[in-house]
Amino acid sequence: MKAEIELQRSDLWRGFGLWNFYFLAKIALYWADFIGFDVFYNLLLAAFLLLPVKFKKLHITRGLFALPAAIALLYYDSWLPPFSRLLEQPDILKFSNAYMLELALRFINWQLLGIGFIFIVVYLFLTQWLRMTAWTLLALLLAVLPSVPGVPRLLWADTANTVTQRLNIVTDNPQAASLQGSDLNSLLNEELERFYTAEQSRMTEFALPLADAAPFDVLLLNICSLAWTDLEVSQLTQHPLFAKMDIIFDNFNSATSYSGPAVLRLMRASCGQTAHEALYQPADRQCHLFDNLKQFGFTGNAALNHTGEFEGFIDELSLAGFASPPMIPSNIKPKLKAFDGSPIWGDYDALKLWWTDRLQQNTSSAALLYNTISLHDGNREATLDGGSRSSPYAKRAKTLLDDLDAFMDVLAASDRQVMVVFVPEHGAALEGDRMQIPGMREIPTSDITHVPVGVRFIGTQAIAPETTLQISTPTSYLALSELISRVIKRDVFDQPQVEWRTLISDLPETQAISENSGTVMMNYQGVPYLRLGERDWVKYAR
Fold this sequence. Notes:
By secondary structure, the protein is α/β, with parallel strands linked by helices. It has 2 domains: 2-157, no CATH class; 210-499, Alkaline Phosphatase, subunit A (3-Layer(aba) Sandwich). It contains 21 helices and 15 strands. The strands form 3 sheets. Strands 3-6-1-9-10-2-11 form a 7-stranded mixed β-sheet. A 4-stranded antiparallel β-sheet has the order 5-4-7-8, with no helix packed on it. Strands 12-13-14-15 form a 4-stranded antiparallel β-sheet. A hairpin with a 5-residue loop joins strand 4 (336-337) and strand 5 (343-344). Helix 2 (19-31) packs parallel to helix 8 (132-144). The longest helix is centred in the first third of the chain and has 22 residues, at 56-77. The radius of gyration is 28 Å and the shape is elongated. The N and C termini lie far apart (59 Å). Residues 154-176 have low confidence and may be disordered.
């Protein structure tokens, strides 16, 4: 009788079985910083799978029901964008087949697959002698304990420690470094709220210029997919274009990693930084950079080297305040084919077309937003037969910089005075990291939002600075708006002498906080933190 009872108990408590591998693999990935680990949902799944059932068919049925939940939970624990973000971007379906295949291959981590194969062999070998369910429960316990208040974190399970060591970060505030769980989450939420509250009161004051001030043009070169890290990877940091800049912002934060929000932030540069959701709400007219320029006689327009159809970019321009449609050089031959198959025209060709049109206009001052996607991920070189071939990023980046440099020579050869502002939207994420594959920009990390911003004055009476002036303080769009305001007020182009360092002194500083829809990146005490949706903050693992 006793033997029968023991047999019945063993039939009821079947253990995890093959699910051992699922949990052990997830915990290993979690400790290696490749994924997160939601304690509640993972324990709930484990409890569901351990619940004793009498009949084998019911046990098998339970496993089948658990499979989609386990897959969804793995996706939830990963750093991939939530399904809601995918539903918000139906234009992804317009990607070309070649680009879709390229993206799919990037998700394959061959080294991780090799480690996984070794893990499977070791697991199958150990199952001959060990009750793996017991070891799985122990691993779950070690993963769960650090989240229990008052329980010290284990060194091998401490994601924060591994990230800090990897980034060689020294935390200035030991008290903040010791915070964890709900305390740290509240602290970071309060810090973010303080930042946005303080930004609401900041605004550029556009004062009247000097009497008989010289008219000039403002040209904003808004470049998709170019960050400092991309220049370094492509070995283009020493391109002649940058040497000819009068001012370089070394520590400029684009505050987002997507084109639409980047354009909105640039066009609202005259006010402090807002949360992502506020970009799609009406803003004070004083926040709109081109509206401020309009009162000084500037005629504002936009020009693109692409169709502007992807993700409704032209609609974003309307929201940014452009009443008339942008200039699109559709009558000339395209140089590239975009990731969605649409044409992309050469940057020199597009800008030269605008410049020819601008010289024919009877306007004293023009302000242009020029947006280029020549460097966007997945673009290919257009061929004579209407097809396309691969075009590496470094090659396209050099062509872009060469084109812009050549166009500035055209400006310099004219009798016009132009303030050229080179301001990328965001980076290309060429290398990726533990949380994002190359080319993925859902999380606006500093590698993506730390962009090279430069200013060049063409046609000034004063002698240009002997060397390029470097601005190393943390800045963002408000600093650009303030600089343009000072150039207007001080009539820089018509002065025989300009105190260049005075012109750039004390420009507004902005803390490097970046945000996309449902994603926030913020540095606190030198450590990067990430918040996805309504989930708690986590330290970012590169």
